[in-house]
Amino acid sequence: MDSVIISNNGMYLYMLDRFLTPVVGGSSQWNLCYRRSIHTQYDFKFHQRCDGKKNTLTIIKKNEFVFGGFTDIPWAGADFVYRETTKAFIFSLRNKEQLGPFKSMVKEPSNAIYNHMYRGPTFGRTDIRIDTTHKLVDSSSSHLGTSYSAPNEVKDNSTILAGANRFDPDELEVFYLQ
After folding, report:
1. Per-residue pLDDT reduced to its tens digit, 89-138
2. Which of 51, 71, 76, 132 could form a disulfide with 88 if both were Cys (CB 3.0 to 4.6 A apart)?
3. pTM for the whole thing?
4. What is the per-residue pLDDT across 37-63, written as a single tens digit (0 to 9) for each?
5. Whose CA is closest to 89, among 50, 56, 47?
């Protein structure tokens, strides 16, 4: 995986492999379909490059925090609907509360991902929402525990992933399984 966010961190790569193996198997070839710093920060570019691809992995970096999500169903920006799956999950490799890496499974499968042409990858109703179309500062947000489970040790569901409820990603990458 050619990630500028995690490629230099063996522990991140190891944990992500442990999270992914139960849903995609042990040998996997991940290809980049979107990187914010290359393909522009606008959400429509994410959809141009990633819509229709199954088994996508989103990795987000905000300051020192690294998190994201996986879905086995394809993104489709023009749908404007929630899509259902039981295989989607959110993960944290480094978080504000200094908990170890964790994986949060979808608990509302009918709200696993949300497709909207003016939003980037959106997991659950409010768990992770990437929204940078309008170039508003801190228009993306996270609130873990709505449609995805949150570890019992989490003290603040709205800041655990990105360090704040509203944020602007420093980098965002989406990979698909080939």
Report:
1. 999 999 999 999 999 999 999 999 999 888 899 999 999 999 876 555 66
2. 71
3. 0.95
4. 998 767 788 999 999 999 999 999 999
5. 56
Q: How far is CA 149 from the centre of its chain?
A: 15
Alpha helices in the chain (DSSP H): 10-24, 36-39, 43-50
Token pair recorded at residue 109 = 């499968």
49: Cβ–Cβ under 8 A, 6 or more apart, which residues? 33, 34, 39, 174
CA distances from 30 to 58, 88, 135, 152 (A): 11, 17, 29, 31
Locate the DSSP E strands across the chain.
Answer: 30-35, 56-62, 65-71, 82-83, 89-94, 102-105, 113-114, 122-123, 128-129, 140-142, 166-167, 171-177
